[in-house]
């Protein structure tokens, strides 16, 4: 029996919930308004307060928060973004939801392809765990060191090579990341941004639906409607073979395909983590096999 395609995400509902949750997180004192304490019946700002700050009518803002973004101008969205104190990523997400790009003809999404030269670059990065990520947090290509640190993704079916599936559905990844909650938040924020850009993507809808059914943590984080991009930082891990790792990561969007990113990890020179990476590099694929058989 053929699997039925998942319905697209409801863009109007996404827009409504995003605006409501952004408004709810602001307190009157945050924006210089008086707080009447016990007389407030809603968390955060009232609609009329937000409309006043943005310089639009209450009726206009109410229609927008109800998901009706038709004919809204970029200037109005900018004013609302300023009033809500949105980040650049949140502002872009609001624009995608309120003013989606028109597509002349809906065509099935083509498989994401990684250029051969980029694969060669990955293979040449000795001692540096690196991979290429794509839409829906898919993992498209990786090198030997990434497999040694994160596990051999080649042993997974292509549809399982996905960070959201790994983080929320695989217990070993819960053990791998010291701050699993933050890793999970980062993944959900990326999926939310993807949903804003591609609400009619059936594979994304299917992924969100599956995770919502199988993971209470995913349902909780998805309901926050948070979005952000994280291009660099530090990730702490507890590797089954070499113990604690503290690795700095950098994420580079590809200039010829902004839906793909090259992500690299490195350790501070002379650190215990650098030595641990050298050990993993010397073990190569044996490290992956040994790690898979090592009790967590």
Give structural attributes.
296 residues, alpha+beta, 14 helices, 47% helix, elongated
What does this structure look like?
By secondary structure, this protein is an alpha+beta fold. Helix content is 47%, strand content 13%. It contains 14 helices and 5 strands. It has helices at 11-24, 47-54, 58-65, 74-84, 88-98, 116-124, 144-150, 163-169, 171-176, 180-197, 202-214, 216-222, 272-283, 285-293, and strands spanning 130-133, 139-142, 232-239, 243-254, 257-266. The protein has a 5-stranded antiparallel sheet with strand order 2-1-5-4-3, sandwiched between helices. The radius of gyration is 22 Å and the shape is elongated. The relative contact order is 0.12.
Indicate the overall shape: elongated
Percentage beta strand: 5-15%
Instruction: Report the order of strands and helices.
Output: HHHHHHEEHHHHHHEEEHH
Number of strands: 5
Radius of gyration: 22 Å
Number of distinct helices: 14
Poorly predicted tracts of residues: 289-296
**If strands are numbered along the chain, what order do they take across the biggest sheet?**
2-1-5-4-3
Average residue pLDDT: 87
Helix-strand makeup class: alpha+beta
Helical amount among residues, as a percent range? Answer: 40-55%
Largest sheet: 5 strands, antiparallel
Termini separation comes to: 38 Å
């Amino acid at each position: 029996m053929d699997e039925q395609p998942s319905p697209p995400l409801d863009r109007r509902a996404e827009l409504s919930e995003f605006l409501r949750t952004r408004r709810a997180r602001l307190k009157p004192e945050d924006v210089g308004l008086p707080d009447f304490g016990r007389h407030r019946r809603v968390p955060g700002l009232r609609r009329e307060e937000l409309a006043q700050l943005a310089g639009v009518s209450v009726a206009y803002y109410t229609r927008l928060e109800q998901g009706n973004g038709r004919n809204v101008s970029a200037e109005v969205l900018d004013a609302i973004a300023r009033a809500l104190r949105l980040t650049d990523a949140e502002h872009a997400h609001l624009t995608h939801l309120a003013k989606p790009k028109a597509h002349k003809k809906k065509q099935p999404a083509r498989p994401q392809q990684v250029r051969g030269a980029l694969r060669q670059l990955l293979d040449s990065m000795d001692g540096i765990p690196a991979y290429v990520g794509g839409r829906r947090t898919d993992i498209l290509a990786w090198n030997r060191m990434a497999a040694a640190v994160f596990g051999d993704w080649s042993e997974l079916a292509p549809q399982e090579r996905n960070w959201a599936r790994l983080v929320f559905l695989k217990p070993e990844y819960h053990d791998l990341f010291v701050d699993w909650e933050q890793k999970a938040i980062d993944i959900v924020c990326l999926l939310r941004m993807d949903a804003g850009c591609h609400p009619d993507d059936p594979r994304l809808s299917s992924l969100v639906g599956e995770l919502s059914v199988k993971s209470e943590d995913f349902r909780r984080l998805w309901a926050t409607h948070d979005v952000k991009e994280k291009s660099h930082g530090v990730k702490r891990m507890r590797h089954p073979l070499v113990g604690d790792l503290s690795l700095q990561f950098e994420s580079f969007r590809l200039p010829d395909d902004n839906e793909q990113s090259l992500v690299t990890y490195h350790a501070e020179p002379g650190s215990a983590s650098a030595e641990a990476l050298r050990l993993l590099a010397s073990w190569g694929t044996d490290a992956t096999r040994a790690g898979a058989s090592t009790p967590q």
